[in-house]
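Could you help me review a protein record that somebody else here produced? Do not assume that whoever made the record got everything right. The record follows directly below this note.
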Amino acid sequence: MFVLSTPHHGTGAAAEVRQAIALADAAVAAGVGYLVYASAAGAGQPAGVPMLDAKRQVEEHLRCLPVPHAVIAPVFFMENLSYPWNRQVLRAGYWPIPLPPAHRVQLVSAGDVAHFAALVIERRDDFAGYRTEIAADEVTGPQAAGIMSVILNRPISHTEAVPEPLAPMAPFFRWIAATGFHADIQRLRMGYPEVGWQSLQQWATAQDWSEVMGTGPAADVRNPCSLTALMPYHYAAYLDPY
């Protein structure tokens, strides 16, 4: 059984823990003999980031259950870039993952995660008892900005400043800068080539960026007030489905 929960869309980290544990417990009570949990890279240790720490609590509970389980732990989803506020930041001419310019962030597409999850579900004997962090690409902010500049056909710059609507995510960005993701991309590519493992360039090239390329007014990330209209969207969904 595949177990997936989220703290986003207004539920919160504590609710995610309750939901995931209730789902896993119900599955065991129903006689399910193998669980695959979608956690998050970095959640294996205390992180000081509510989203990651919530998933760590779920992982700890799974280890106490009387059935085998596997954990897949994706890094930052490329699909996060498609959220409206991130598109606005891109439209304003900035890469929306604010980190020091030399720091790399690992990325993965939802499609690659789905393909890998299918492998883990089908190959119980290979994965039961293991926790696997998964990523497909690793880029610095300037590298990502260069890739997006070509794809969007407009200048995209890297910035370390966190746009005001994403201020609640500042602890997460600080965690990436200080600790970050450490999936073994080379091992994943060599061991599971059937997944595909899209690079940022491959994924972004296949997306429809017409909203970013539109003619409407672009938000100015240098002016925090210009992005406040985006706040009706739950800010934590910035990481969904991460």
DSSP finds nine helices and seven strands in the chain.
